[in-house]
Each structure stands twice: as structure tokens, then as C-alpha cells.
Amino acid sequence: MQLKPSAHADTFARDHLPPPGQWPDLVFPLPGLRYPDRLNCGAELLDATVERFGAGRPALHTAAGETWTYGELQRRADRIAHVLTDDLGVLPGNRVLLRGPTTPWLVACWLAVMKAGAVAVTVLAAQRAHELRGICEIARVRHALCDARSLDDLARAEVRDLTVVPYGGEDPGDLLRLAEAKPDAYAPVETSADDVALIAFTSGTTGRPKGCVHFHRDVLAIADTFSVHVLRPVPDDVFAGSPPLGFTFGLGGLVVFPLRAGASALLLEQAGPDRLLPAIAEHRVSVLFTAPTAYRAMLDKLGAYDTGSLRRCVSAGENLPANTWRAWRERTGLRIINGIGATEMLHIFISAADDDARPGATGVPVPGYEARIVDADGDDVPDGEPGLLAVRGPTGCRYLADERQSEYVRDGWNLTGDTYVREPDGYFRYVARADDMIISAGYNIAGPEVEDALLRHPDVREAAVVGRPDAERGTVVVAYAVLREGVVRGPETEAALREFTKGEITPYKCPKEILFTDALPRTPTGKLQRYRLREEQAGRTAGNR
After folding, report:
1. What digits encode the pLDDT tens for the residues 223-272?
2. Is 229 left (phi over 0), alpha (psi -120 to 50) or beta?
3. I need a surface site. Which of 241, 451, 460, 485 has the fewest CB within 10 A?
4. 419, 388 Cβ separation under 8 angstroms
5. 110, exposed or middle or buried, with CB in 10 Å at 0-12, 13-18, 19+?
């Protein structure tokens, strides 16, 4: 499709979109998806919501009992936007890294970046220096707003020409101090509907991160499809959940969806299963976003907390087992809204709610999206037979300057890398991942990325990483390592390697177990045969039953 004239002074992101012939087909079948040529999603989510519902409504809550109204969020975001443009010289189209735990100030920073017409690159507070450096290099990030508690790894990344401004600390140049002197109102940049709003990074099976580029209209489209037609929130809803804002699952569920509906969100810095239940009870959470692992972990503790405020429970990130769905319904009376989404698609595109939800199935295409099952040649697979999931809609994959675009998008359809079955009645049922990605507790983990981290240790000569089936987390990461001569194999070495890896990559990616071996299985040409290691792990799991 023809892009509208850009309002960006820095056109790097648009200049590095895939060639037009590699774009997915974008379809806009619903009236609510027809957006004006000029559109700023930050202004729509904040300013337009204030106009519709008033500035006095609660917008954001914290576990400590602090509440920001929409008016307070608007003033704080606008002051930060002034700092970005007036003090830091951020131009429309510049990439701004956002890093920190899930707090109201991180949300205010994200909205400020949107309103300033810049491009948000939100990363996890747990990501390590090596990962941060790679993201900054790919996206050519030159500005960063970082929670003062999360500065260390960003400093160790030593990104050239990166201006880092902390927030929430004691530094005289702290963002919040600078913002205090700024005006309360900021006129949002009149960005194009298809100007780049954010670059969300994911990892493929090679471990090299891919930047998924999404436009201002894409941000609104996920609210006007999944949220409006499946989730169906109301202004009195209180959203909460475990996914951080560095994941698009969290960005949608904790920022975009509640703001679009005039609702509020409880933002939890620590959001494990043991924290979710008391938070639900205390803050009367009505809409919950988390992974199947968390739902399973909370089942045995439900009786100790009042969860009667819940009316919507959303699961994504990994396949939701039918037994978990049934157990949750038996204990709460609620049908979990299962869903499949992707960073490449921005959010959920197949799901079902209420009487349409059923155990063991993901659901049907979200209104606005189409899905089919195809074979390796792109031809349709008959109902009831497994094949590759292909989807298209108002959002789609656009990698930032990445040759892997042609692997994800074929003949205009997005191939998600999942194997699915379409039942005769139109429901889609998950079978397995079609690639080597390890999905553990809802997190996508690229085995080669973990291998690279292990290989950075001087005692490791070779490494291979695979997934092992696990009853609690779905899959856990297991590493095989060939040590240099003279290094003693044993628990102490394993513990040292695991600790080292935690310093190199995000801790949830680190191996649950490291096995030492004399050699790794390889083809005659030297290619690593990971499938043999996966088979070994599957055999070990079966043998322990």
C-alpha cells in the first residue's frame, strides 16, 4: 500500500522498512479500522480519552496505593515530552530507548515519546548489556530514558553516542526534575497514521534480535480489534497482569487497551503468581493478563484470596492446556480467554471469549483478521490436518532491515512459525512450534542466543541448547557444554556457568540444567544436530514418568 507523507524529520525507521513486495497484505474490513491520514496514537490514547471521559478518572494504580488520574498522567507525559524536544533535542522519528520496571512513570515516558512523534524502543529491565548494545546498534538509538534503578547494564553496554537520562533518582539531571519546570500542556506532533511509532524486538531461532516495526494506526488497531470485539472492556475495569511493557503482550494489556477504553491499570513491578492473587484481591482487579504457567501456579492458592472482582482472564505467550482452562473455570467460574499473538503482529489475532471459548482450542480469528492453515508451499491444508498457521489483518510483520522478512511473510500472509489444526467448525487448535524456539512459561527463548552466551565463558569450547518438556513451565532450557581440557565437570562448574550466563543475558533465558559431554552431535559437514539432543531430552522425560 502507498504510505502517507511522513511527519518524521529522522526517516531512518521508514527508510529501512522491507521492500514493498515483501510486505504482508493488510486488510481493514471493519469500519472502526479506518483511520485519518494524520494520527498520533499517544494523543488518541490520552488526550482523546480525557476529552471523552474527563480528567478526574483513575488511570494508573501502584501496589503501594498510589493512583494517577488521567489528568495527572496527561500533565506528566506532556512535561516529559517537553524535556524530550526542548532539552534533549529529540526529533520526530528519533528512536528513544525506554527501560525500567512496570511503573506509571514508564507509561508516562512511553506516551511522551508517542506525542513527541519519536519512536519508542521499550526493552526489559532485566536485559543485559550485550543484549542492549545489539538493540541500540540495530535501531540506531541515540536517546534513552531509564529508571534510575536499571542504569547499570545500560551503562555497561557502552553504546556509542547514547544520551541516557535517568528518572526517579537523585541525579540533578533526573528527568522528573527537568520535567517539573515544563508546561503542563504539549501539542502532539501530527504524525502520519503510518509513521513508525515503535520498534519491538524479538529473537528468532538464530538469537539475533529482530526489530518489529509498528505504525501509529497499528497501536490503535489492536485495541479496535481484540480489545473491542473479544475482551470488551468497560471504563470501570481495572487491568493488571504479569507481562512487562517491553513485551507487546504487556503493552497492549496494561497500557493500550485500558487507556483506549477509559479504564485503569494496576502496574506491578513484581508480578509473579504469588503477587498477582493478593493484588487482585486488594485492588479489585477485573481484567487479568498473564501466561498459562501463572494460571496453573495460582490454582492451589485461589481459596486464600477474594478473586470475585475478576471478570476477564486473558492467557497468551504459550499454549494454554485444556486441564488448566477447565480447572480455572471450576474454581472461579470464569472461562480463560486464550489467545495467540506475536510481536510481529503486535498482539492477539486468534482468540475466543465467553460461550465461544472452549478448552484445548485457541479460538477463531479475531474480527479484523483472517487465518488459514497451509503447507510448506503455501497451499491450503484440509481441516483436521496440521500445517503452518498463516494470518493477515490490519497489522503485520515489518522487520527493520532484516533479510528474515521473506521467511515470515509469504504471498502476503504472515507465517507465525506455529503448527496448527483448523477444525471443521472453524476453530484453531495449537499443535507445536514449527521452529527451534523454546517457549518456557510464556517466554520465547532462542537456543542459539543462550549458546552464544555460554560460549563467551573461557571454559566452554562448544555449546548446544534445547528445550525439555516440563509439567510446570511447558518447556525448560537445557544446555550441553563441551569444556576445555582440564576443567572439572561437576556441580560447582555448572553453578559457575549458570551464574555467568545470568550476567550475559536475561535470567529467564538461562539454562535450568547444564550437561557436560565430550562432543556434540554434528553432520559430516559440521552442522549441529539439535534434534538428536531434543530426542534425548524427550526420552529422559518419558523415562521419568
Report:
1. 999 999 999 999 999 999 999 999 999 999 999 999 999 999 999 999 98
2. alpha
3. 485
4. yes
5. buried
Q: Are 154 and 132 in contact (CB under 8 A)?
A: yes
* C-alpha grid cell, residue 192: 502520519
CB 426 within 8 A of CB 43: no
Q: Which residues have C-beta within 8 Å of that of residue 126, sequence separation ≥ 6?
A: 506, 507, 508
Go through the chain and tell me how many residues it has: 545
Tell me the backbone φ, ψ of residue 368, rounded to 5 degrees. Answer: 110, -15
Q: Taking the CB of residue 183, how many other CB atoms lie within 10 A of it? A: 11
Q: In this structure, are residues 302 and 277 in contact, taking their beta carbons and an 8 Å threshold?
A: yes
Q: Directed axis angle between helix 273-283 and helix 292-299, to 10°?
A: 80
In a domain, 263, yes or no: no
Q: Quickly list H helices, 35-69.
A: 41-45, 47-53
Dist. CA 122–CA 247, nearest whole Å: 8
CA distances from 342 to 148, 150, 203, 282 (A): 30, 26, 12, 32
Dig out the grid coordinates for 6 from the structure: 511522513
Contact 150, 125 (CB under 8 A): yes
How do residues 44-66 score in pLDDT, each as one tens digit? 999 999 999 999 999 999 999 99
Domain count, the chain: 1
Question: What amino acid occupies position 22?
Answer: Q
Cα–Cα–Cα angle for 337, 387, 243, nearest 5°?
35
Q: Give CA–CA dist 95/102, Å, rounded.
A: 20
What distance lies between CA 76 and its chain's CA centroid?
25
| Residues near 178 by beta carbon (within 8 Å), at least 6 away in sequence | 83, 87, 165
CB-count exposure of residue 289 (10 Å: 0-12, 13-18, 19+): buried
- Number of neighbours of residue 168 by Cβ within 10 angstroms: 18
- The cell for 409 is 511473510
State the pLDDT confidence band at 300, using cuts at 50, 70 and 90. Answer: confident
Q: Whole-structure pTM over 0.90, yes or no?
A: no
- Amino acid identity of residue 60, one-letter, is L
Residue for grid cell 541500540:
136
Strand stretches in 329-424, DSSP E: 337-341, 348-351, 364-365, 370-374, 386-392, 409-410, 413-422
Q: Decide: helix, strand or coil at residue 456.
A: coil
Distance of alpha carbon 412 from alpha carbon 397, whole angstroms:
10
Please give the residue range of the domain that contains residue 455.
437-543
Angle between helix axes 104-115 and 70-82 (nearest 10 degrees) is 60
For residue 485, the domain's CATH number is 3.30.300.30
Query: Does some domain include residue 96?
Result: no
**53-56: long-range contacts, CB 8 A cutoff, minimum separation 24:** 53/235, 53/262
Grid cell digits, residue 121: 524502543
- Note the pLDDT of residue 442: 84
Query: How far apart (Å, rounded) are the C-alpha atoms in residues 299 and 320?
Result: 14
Residue 453, domain member (yes or no): yes
Nearest partner of 412 among 25, 18, 27, judged by Cα:
25
Query: Does 172 reside within a domain?
Result: no
| pLDDT for position 1 | 67
